[in-house]
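User: Some background: our group keeps a shared notebook of sequences we're curious about, and every so often someone picks one and asks for a predicted structure to add to the entry. Today it's my turn. The entry only has the sequence so far, pasted here. Could you supply the structure so I can complete it?
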Amino acid sequence: MICLGIGFLIPNYAQLVLHQNAFAAGCLLLPGCVVGAVVSPFSGRLLHRFGAKRPILEGNLAILFATACFGVFALRLSAAMFLVVYIFFAFGHSCSMGNSMTSGLRQLSVELNADGNAVINTTQQLGGAVGTSVVSSILAAAQAQLPGDMVTGTMLGSHTAFLILAALAVAMLCCTACWGPFFHMGKRGTVRPFCVQEEGGR
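Assistant: Of course. Here's the predicted structure to add to the notebook entry:
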C-alpha cells in the first residue's frame, strides 16, 4: 500500500504542483529504484548473517523516515527533496520487503511453500490496489474542494495522503518490533520454522 501509494503521489505532485513534464516526474523515482535494486542482494546477506529482524526493522525505520518527511514537508516539497527522500524509501523497501517474504515462507513446510507464495503475491496486488485507490481518492477529494486552485488542492490532498501512509509505516514498524517469535533464530543464522520438530521429537 505504501509503495504504490507513494509511487502514485510523487509523479502527480511533480506535474501538478512543481509543473514538471511527465518524463521528469517519472524520473524522480529512477534513482530510488536503482538504489533498491543494488541494495536487495546485500539485504539478503544481512538476513542470512543476522537473521530476519535486523534488516526488516532497519528497512521499516527507513520507510517511516521517508513517509514522515513526505508528510511533514508536503506543502513545500521540491523535486530534489522528492528524489533524495525517495532514495531512503527505496532503501528501506528493499531491506524489508524481500526479507519479510523470505522469513514468512520459512515458517511454512516445503509442501506449503507454493501456497505461501500465492498468498503473498495476491496480498501484494490487493494491497497495492487498495493503497492506490485510497491515496487517489484523497487527492481527488482535496482537488474537488478547490476546483479553481489545482495546485493548492493537490498539495493539501498529498499532505493528507502522505500522513496516512506514515501512519501505516508506524503500524508496520510496531509489528516488526513486537513480533519477536516470528524472527526466531535457528542454527547458522537461519530462521527455523516452528512447525519443524527437533531431532528426537522434542
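Suggested note for the entry: The chain has seven helices and no strands. Confidence is low (pLDDT under 50) at residues 185-202.
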